[in-house]
Design goal:
Strand content: 25-35%
Order of helices and strands: HEEEHEEEEEE
Number of helices: 2
Distance between the termini: 81 Å
Radius of gyration: 22 Å
CATH superfamily: Immunoglobulins
Helix content: 10-25%
CATH class: Mainly Beta
Shape: elongated
Number of domains: 1
Number of strands: 9
CATH architecture: Sandwich
Amino acid sequence: MLKKFTRLAIMSILMLVTIFLCSCGSGIEEPTIKISYESGVLKPIYYGDRHNKDKNEIEERLRDFMIGKRFTDLPTIDFEDKILIEALNFETDEFEIYDYIIDKKCNIISNYNVEPFKIGLAENKSAEFMFETSKDIEKYSEFTIEGNLVHCLLIRCQVNNSSFAFSTLILKTNE
């Protein structure tokens, strides 16, 4: 009889704790995006709504992302390729896209304070832009990895009055 009561008490407590924990959830999902290009899908790196404005924090997240990965395994995208960004579970008016060049230690070596490329969203919550070359790309030739520069495309947007950031890493031949 005591064993039955103990089991019943434990089960009741577990159910109450489960119900309580389920009710504590806010029901708000973190914004997610899909980044694709003509030949495939790019892996997004999520920064969330905090710790995404400081250069050191962005570099630290890039380093964390690259643990156990090789730069040579990153997708190679040609200049003039179109990149599609889709907002999967949130509403925003536009994306700001920054193109940074990084070194082997995931340090941003290009100018951090560049003006972003701003693009508005279409009705299907997606935006398309063309990956373009810059006029000063030659000055980074010493930072190539097997003949390729590593580009960090940082994507910012406003979601419910908060700035969210995402990024992806790609390779481009230094031509």
